[in-house]
Amino acid sequence: MNKFGHLTTLPTGPFRFIALDVETAGKMIGGICQIGLCFVGETGDVQAYSVLIDPEEPFEPFNTDLHGISAETVAGAETFPTVFARLFDLLNTHSLVQHSTFDEKALTSACVRYGVPMITSHWTNSVTVARQAWPELKGAGGHGLANLKKHLGLEFHHHDAGEDARAAATVVLKAEEIVGTALSHLKIDRQLKLKF
């Protein structure tokens, strides 16, 4: 278990969608030090998961101040290729949600850095979803997670990857309630791509 009670082993799917968030160690966008996932079931139930990663690069004080993760925190943790290999099939067979486009860019950068294949999942940006559901927030704090937390009364610990993934998933679920319809592309319909 970690300090927020997230799962430390992966649940079995399929899921309606998976929200994903990463935290990074320093100046390189691909220097991922934590991956958080939130698995959303057909009935809207959510399960958060997070894993620490050795970014194999120095931590910047700014980043550590933001998320609380340091070289000491990740001592003995696995590196990105090992962790990503374990997550790959699960992520690649589900629609993914991220809050902004930073997380997809960070994963892509880490994959390039380590020479491993990137997932081909469909990504939904929960910022875009939030803009449609709560247009009144434009110019009134915006659609970042911190402002949505305040506006929607969400409870989560900002800048923890598992917590932010759970928040992004919750934003989508609440937006669907406001709009009165489910996002049609967030459904279980992806098939495992066979590699030949």
Automatic annotation (TrEMBL):
Domain spans labelled Exonuclease: 16-181
SMART domains attached to this UniProt entry: EXOIII
An example Gene Ontology CC term for this record: cytosol
Keyword Nuclease: yes
Assigned keywords, A-Z: Exonuclease, Hydrolase, Nuclease
Residue stretches spanning the membrane: none
GO biological process: DNA metabolic process
One GO molecular-function entry: 3'-5' exonuclease activity
A Pfam family hit: RNase_T
Tagged with keyword Repressor: no
Protein name: DNA polymerase III subunit epsilon
Species for this entry: Octadecabacter ascidiaceicola
Lineage summary: Bacteria, Pseudomonadati, Pseudomonadota, Alphaproteobacteria, Rhodobacterales
